[in-house]
Amino acid sequence: MTIPNHIAIIMDGNRRWAEQRKLPALAGHRAGVKSMRSTVEYLGNHGLKYLTVYG
Protein backbone atom coordinates (compact mmCIF):
# COMPACT_ATOMS: atom_id res chain seq x y z
CA MET A 1 0.00 0.00 0.00
CA THR A 2 1.25 3.50 -0.82
CA ILE A 3 1.11 5.97 2.07
CA PRO A 4 0.86 9.68 1.15
CA ASN A 5 3.22 12.25 2.67
CA HIS A 6 0.44 13.98 4.64
CA ILE A 7 -2.82 12.77 6.15
CA ALA A 8 -5.36 14.89 8.05
CA ILE A 9 -7.80 13.31 10.51
CA ILE A 10 -10.84 14.95 12.09
CA MET A 11 -11.74 13.12 15.27
CA ASP A 12 -15.52 13.11 15.53
CA GLY A 13 -18.12 10.85 17.05
CA ASN A 14 -16.45 9.61 20.23
CA ARG A 15 -19.24 10.94 22.44
CA ARG A 16 -21.95 9.55 20.14
CA TRP A 17 -20.15 6.18 20.10
CA ALA A 18 -20.26 6.11 23.90
CA GLU A 19 -23.89 7.22 24.09
CA GLN A 20 -24.96 4.45 21.69
CA ARG A 21 -23.37 1.97 24.07
CA LYS A 22 -24.83 3.66 27.17
CA LEU A 23 -21.35 4.59 28.38
CA PRO A 24 -20.13 7.91 29.77
CA ALA A 25 -18.65 10.36 27.27
CA LEU A 26 -15.22 9.87 28.83
CA ALA A 27 -15.29 6.22 27.72
CA GLY A 28 -15.79 7.39 24.15
CA HIS A 29 -12.91 9.83 24.39
CA ARG A 30 -10.65 7.14 25.82
CA ALA A 31 -11.61 4.79 22.99
CA GLY A 32 -10.80 7.57 20.52
CA VAL A 33 -7.37 8.09 22.06
CA LYS A 34 -6.67 4.36 21.92
CA SER A 35 -7.67 4.24 18.27
CA MET A 36 -5.59 7.33 17.44
CA ARG A 37 -2.51 5.87 19.13
CA SER A 38 -2.69 2.71 17.04
CA THR A 39 -3.31 4.77 13.89
CA VAL A 40 -0.32 7.03 14.57
CA GLU A 41 1.90 4.02 15.25
CA TYR A 42 0.78 2.27 12.06
CA LEU A 43 1.26 5.33 9.88
CA GLY A 44 4.63 6.11 11.44
CA ASN A 45 5.81 2.58 10.81
CA HIS A 46 4.72 2.84 7.17
CA GLY A 47 6.53 6.05 6.29
CA LEU A 48 4.00 8.83 6.87
CA LYS A 49 5.86 12.13 7.13
CA TYR A 50 3.08 14.49 8.29
CA LEU A 51 -0.09 13.91 10.29
CA THR A 52 -2.58 16.64 11.15
CA VAL A 53 -5.20 15.85 13.79
CA TYR A 54 -8.16 18.08 14.62
CA GLY A 55 -10.30 17.10 17.53
From TrEMBL:
Name one process (GO BP) from the record: polyprenol biosynthetic process
Task: Write down the Pfam families for this protein, in alphabetical order.
Answer: Prenyltransf
Task: Please list the coiled coil stretches.
Answer: none
Q: Which keywords accompany this UniProt record?
A: Transferase
User: What are the GO MF terms of this UniProt record?
Assistant: ditrans,polycis-polyprenyl diphosphate synthase [(2E,6E)-farnesyl diphosphate specific] activity
Q: What is this protein called?
A: Isoprenyl transferase
Q: Which organism is it from?
A: marine sediment metagenome
